[in-house]
Amino acid sequence: MGNQITFTVDGKIINAAEGEMLLWTALDNDIYIPHLCGERNEKERPASCRLCFVEVDGRPAPMPACTLPVSEGLVVKTRSERVDALVAAGFELLMSNHRLDCKNCPANGNCELQRIAKARKLRLKPKNLPVLDKGLPVDDSAPGILYDPNKCVLCGRCIRACRHSGNGVLGFTRRGFERIVATFGDLPLGDSGCQGCGDCAEACPIGALAKKA
Ligand code: FES
Question: What stretch of H or E contains 14?
Fold first, then answer.
């Protein structure tokens, strides 16, 4: 990582190593920016959830904070009309593909979707879009792991965790609304070579993958 540099986020002066991604430096300084797909120590940065938008002085459009390296003198705002509209639209889209069942969800109270909704005063239940439930079966075939694909918002963290664990049984499959995280050949987790290490459940920010109670 580079030299220590200084920049501002929402008027707060921040020191960080040059080149670090803005998202993590903001979070380190108690400035919350919604995020789902980004992971701090991960080289792969898909920037696919589109929730971490910020305004940067001198840039014509909001930018994802998870792929924005900090540099000397950067001036960032985490909120603006444009940012709020983008985050609200992105969040509503995600929630239109998420089976909402907080009461019975193992992630209830420790869910990134709940955190985002609270921080940005957004509704968990979409207002403008219909909820499209995939109607897929919950997979409880693996030892210790429960997978509900109807809750998955495709952040991809479980896929990376599974790969790092050395198992590599998870991946994205299908397209559009049908897109899901699944095992090779769509086998139930228990028949896929999954070792039940639970790293995927640890990585899941929302309870689509969870450790069995
Ligand atoms: Fe930046 Fe997902 S965390 S786009």
Answer: strand 12-17
